[in-house]
UniProtKB/TrEMBL annotation, chains A, C:
<keyword id="KW-0963">Cytoplasm</keyword>
<dbReference type="InterPro" id="IPR036390">
    <property type="entry name" value="WH_DNA-bd_sf"/>
</dbReference>
<comment type="function">
    <text>Participates in chromosomal partition during cell division. May act via the formation of a condensin-like complex containing Smc and ScpA that pull DNA away from mid-cell into both cell halves.</text>
</comment>
<keyword id="KW-0132">Cell division</keyword>
<dbReference type="Pfam" id="PF04079">
    <property type="entry name" value="SMC_ScpB"/>
</dbReference>
<keyword id="KW-0131">Cell cycle</keyword>
<keyword id="KW-0159">Chromosome partition</keyword>
<dbReference type="InterPro" id="IPR036388">
    <property type="entry name" value="WH-like_DNA-bd_sf"/>
</dbReference>
<dbReference type="InterPro" id="IPR005234">
    <property type="entry name" value="ScpB_csome_segregation"/>
</dbReference>
UniProtKB/TrEMBL annotation, chain B:
<dbReference type="Pfam" id="PF02616">
    <property type="entry name" value="SMC_ScpA"/>
</dbReference>
<protein>
    <recommendedName>
        <fullName>Segregation and condensation protein A</fullName>
    </recommendedName>
</protein>
<keyword id="KW-0159">Chromosome partition</keyword>
<comment type="subunit">
    <text>Component of a cohesin-like complex composed of ScpA, ScpB and the Smc homodimer, in which ScpA and ScpB bind to the head domain of Smc. The presence of the three proteins is required for the association of the complex with DNA.</text>
</comment>
<dbReference type="InterPro" id="IPR003768">
    <property type="entry name" value="ScpA"/>
</dbReference>
<comment type="similarity">
    <text>Belongs to the ScpA family.</text>
</comment>
<comment type="function">
    <text>Participates in chromosomal partition during cell division. May act via the formation of a condensin-like complex containing Smc and ScpB that pull DNA away from mid-cell into both cell halves.</text>
</comment>
<keyword id="KW-0132">Cell division</keyword>
<keyword id="KW-0963">Cytoplasm</keyword>
Length: 203, 249, 203
């Protein structure tokens, strides 16, 4: 690992700098650096370690959805937010999150399966998630009506900071723990009451 | 205890049911059906703001609950009962399906929460715009003749919206923190002194962005209030002149 | 010079990284880092020297027209140009994809509208897309200059597997809040007046 050429590291950094938000895949980097995939991966990892080890570095390297990209270190987030005028976080509703979770873990999955699992219609959230570029059609089921099969997109992996869909944390089996999360329940309860107090439309 | 809870606080009938199970501290593997059913229905009554469409989904589950409850009241045939202590522990407990659904739903509900955390972890890492090297070329994102799909278009569009945020607002906030009305007031007075005590109103607004213009305007108002300057307009629609000090009108 | 705080250096790097092409002036950096001008200049110089001294660094710092900017080192220019060469005629770039998305959803649309939406000039991608036959001129706008209106072609539909343009999934610009200059102006105004009401000094 230690004998990664310095010039190659510099070249890699300059490529990633140029690519910015678009990032570069291992395949693209391998071609650009004229290295085989394995050596490319080693070089990328060396660069990442350099960033992590250097305390005077404000940036580091992340793999999101198959693309390597340079990002600022988490510790500077507050300072950067201060610099950005309107850092509106893209909000996502609880309903959309539930639908997204089901699609992420069960993909490819049809709308009917999602509806059944949630006990409510999920047309709205599905449409929103498609429009936000987080889910996409992954073909059709070969049965009557040929329903659409949904799956997640690379943008989903990016927005949720996942290297690949395999990196999703395993689903928690409820059997293992005592049922009933008192805290969660209290939160929900309080939310509901607060909403009532405001007396308005919760949308 | 009666209370009204807005429907939107729940993501659907299963969510409401989970909520009740939690509140009543019920063992999910041994649900007291009559208690849960009555609580559920009481809740439905309390929820005033129901849209018809959603109401039907809640009612479907209510029907299911009542059905399970009634099944459990039916006498059990001798032959169906296995040698167990609990009367309800039959081959098919009428509650099994409901319990399985609840557990499955809860699993994804928790996954949704963990996704939310992932998104928050991700959101503290900022990235930069790709360098604009369009004069030289661009990096290809697809290999050769790959079939594209419309979802790539949506992704590209959303990414662009995200970038727009990164692109524009930067300068505005920094400028704002650099400007203040009191500083601008000094600037204006210095400028007036330098150019002989008067200048056209417009000339004070020649450069700067929205922030500058607002601050300049407010500074002028404040200076007028303090009688440090006088603004005179020569007739309707005439040029407005800013004078240092008090000027006879 | 040597006792520049590591965290401040990291913060400086993260700011310059985010600012990108626009760069940041000494005055802006001084505000952002909460340092006086002299100390800011020292810190910036320290960062520049770090880049220059480190052979494994692909980027460095330059002062252009009063703004400090991160740029790739000159020695990697050729490699970067190599990266930009289009490897294949039928491939498509992120920029082109963005432009194509705008045209597909907003057609007929002029180049100026596309530029506005993206915040960068789009001549290059438009030319490429015309050459690839994915977009075409769909008439002219009856206004001064009679700008060209662009729309998608049948080849576009074919390549993206669409029966018709109506089959595009709906797109809601969820996060694109209307926050024009006029709104900004009014917000600032109100803020400023509130501050003044509170008794004078707006600082």
């Amino acid at each position: 690992m230690e004998n990664v050429n310095e010039r190659i590291l510099g070249m890699l950094e300059s490529f990633l700098f140029i690519a910015g938000d678009d990032g570069l895949t291992l395949g693209q980097l391998s071609v650009l650096l004229s290295l085989d995939a394995e050596m490319t991966a080693v070089t990328v990892e060396r660069l990442r370690l350099n960033y992590e080890e250097r305390l005077d570095s404000g940036i580091t390297l992340r793999l999101y959805g198959g693309s390597y990209r340079l990002v600022t270190k988490a510790e500077y987030a507050d300072d950067i937010l201060r610099m950005l005028e309107n850092p509106s976080k893209s909000s996502i509703t609880q309903a959309s999150l539930e639908v997204l979770a089901i699609i992420a873990y069960k993909q490819p999955v049809t709308r009917v399966e999602i509806d059944d699992l949630r006990g409510v219609k999920s047309d709205g959230p599905i449409q929103t998630l498609v429009a936000k570029g987080l889910i996409m059609e992954k073909g059709r089921l070969e049965s009557s009506g040929r329903p659409i099969l949904y799956g997640t997109t690379d943008l989903f992996l990016d927005r949720f900071g996942l290297e690949s869909i395999e990196m999703l944390p395993p689903l928690i089996e409820v059997d293992d723990e005592p049922f009933g999360d008192a805290d969660l329940f209290m939160t929900k309860f309080q939310e509901a009451f607060e909403l009532m107090d405001e007396g308005g439309n919760n949308d | 205890m009666t209370y009204k809870v807005k429907l939107e606080a729940f993501e659907g009938p299963l969510d409401l049911l989970l909520h009740l199970i939690n509140r009543l501290e019920i063992d999910i593997y041994d649900i007291p059906m009559s208690e849960l059913t009555s609580q559920y229905i009481e809740h439905l009554h309390a929820m005033r703001v129901l849209e018809l469409d959603e109401l039907s989904e809640y009612l479907v589950l209510a029907a299911t609950l009542i059905e399970i409850k009634s099944k459990m009241l039916l006498p059990v045939h001798e032959g169906d009962v296995l040698d167990h202590h609990n009367d309800y522990e039959m081959e098919d407990d009428p509650r099994d399906e409901l319990v399985a659904r609840l557990i499955e739903y809860k699993k994804y509900k928790e996954a949704a929460n963990s996704l939310k955390e992932s998104a928050e972890d991700r959101s503290v890492h900022f990235t930069k715009l790709p360098e604009d090297l369009s004069d030289y070329g661009e990096i290809a994102v697809t290999e050769s003749d790959e079939k594209m799909n419309v979802f790539d278009l949506i992704g590209a569009f959303q990414k662009m919206l995200e970038r727009k945020k990164l692109r524009s607002p930067l300068s505005a906030s920094i400028l704002r923190s650099e400007l203040s009305v009191s500083e601008k007031m000094d600037d204006i007075m210095t400028k007036l002194e330098k150019i002989g005590g008067k200048c056209p109103f417009e000339s004070l607004f020649e450069d700067g962005d929205v922030n500058d213009l607002v601050v300049t305007f407010l500074s002028l108002l404040e200076l007028m209030k303090r009688l440090d300057i006088t603004v005179i307009q020569e007739g309707n629609f005439g040029q407005m002149i800013v004078f240092a000090g008090q000027e006879d009108i």
